[in-house]
Amino acid sequence: MNHPSTFELAPVERKDIPRLAHIHVIACLPDNAFKLYFATPREFEQRVTEMLEGQVGDSAWQHIKAVDKKTGVLAAWASWNTPTDADIRERDKKAAGKLVDSRNDKVKGGFDFPPGLPTYVQQDTDQWLQRWTCGKRHMLCKALFTDPSFQRQGIGNTLVQYGNQLADSQGLPIFLQGSPYGYPIYAKHGFETVQHLDVDLKEWAPGADSGDKGFGNYRFRYMVRLPRTVLGTS
Question: DSSP letters along 153-216, please?
Answer without folding.
Answer: SSHHHHHHHHHHHHHHHHT--EEEEE-TTTHHHHHHTT-EEEEEEEEEGGGTSTT-TTS-SS--
